[in-house]
Write a structure and sequence with these properties.
It contains six helices and ten strands, in the order βββαβαβαβββαββαα. The chain is of the alpha+beta class and 216 residues long. α1 packs across α3 and α1 packs parallel to α6. The two termini are 31 Å apart.
Length: 216
């Protein structure tokens, strides 16, 4: 569930105070095993907490042409925000990323995912949000993605890139598009308190850590 634990005033604006502060971005090495350039667009599906922030990050990545918020891991008839929030559907909030592998590789998307978009050491939660729908999961679309993701997680674990073990799981499952009001939420609501506190810092970190891949 997404929870606010208090309401205060800062600069005359009402803002929510959340149970957990935004995690800092972590510099991680690029994957040693990656995808060679291919013709045509490719799809990646990633889950890492609230889809507002994960989607907002990848909307600013060069080579990404489309980002859709949705649900993955459960059935079609339970893919609604209200049902998923009840934590009994098996779904995770996820984003479907359409990208050009000649401009950005799958491995580079994963590097951004692990270092900027979320904290891969948090089990069934991200920041203020808790539950299995906020789990860290990579929904692999083919054998190549599975191989890259598996080897990259092992590489990061061996390098002790994070102070705690990575809990990200590789999963399979269909993706279902979320309600219209969730699409491009960060871009459309930049002053929304949840966005300001939890998600805008991720986009700022992307710009600093990956300036060559960032676009406004």
């Amino acid at each position: 569930m997404r929870k606010a634990i208090g309401l205060g005033l800062i600069g005359g604006l009402a803002v929510f105070t959340f149970a957990h502060a935004q995690e800092r971005a972590v510099a991680v090495p690029a994957p040693k095993v990656d995808q060679y350039p291919e013709n045509g667009k490719q799809v990646a599906v990633l889950a890492g907490g609230c889809f507002w922030g994960v989607g907002g990050v990848f909307e600013h990545v060069k080579g990404v042409s489309e980002v859709t918020a949705g649900y993955a891991g459960g059935a079609a008839n339970t893919a609604t925000y209200e049902q998923v929030g009840g934590e009994g559907t098996g779904h995770a909030e996820a984003v479907r990323i359409v990208y050009n592998p000649a401009q950005i590789s799958y491995g580079k998307l994963l590097q951004i995912y692990f270092s900027v978009a979320h904290n891969p050491t948090e089990l069934n939660r991200q920041g203020p949000d808790s539950g299995t729908s906020y789990r860290s999961a990579i929904f692999v679309q083919n054998a190549t993605q599975k191989d890259i993701a598996t080897k990259y997680i092992a590489q990061l674990q061996a390098a002790h890139a994070f102070p705690k073990p990575i809990v990200t799981k590789l999963e399979r499952g269909s993706f279902y598009t979320a309600e219209a009001y969730h699409q491009h939420f960060l871009a459309r609501n930049p002053t929304y308190p949840y966005i300001v506190i939890n998600d805008a810092p991720k986009v700022a970190a992307l710009k600093v850590m990956y300036p060559g891949l960032y676009h406004p």
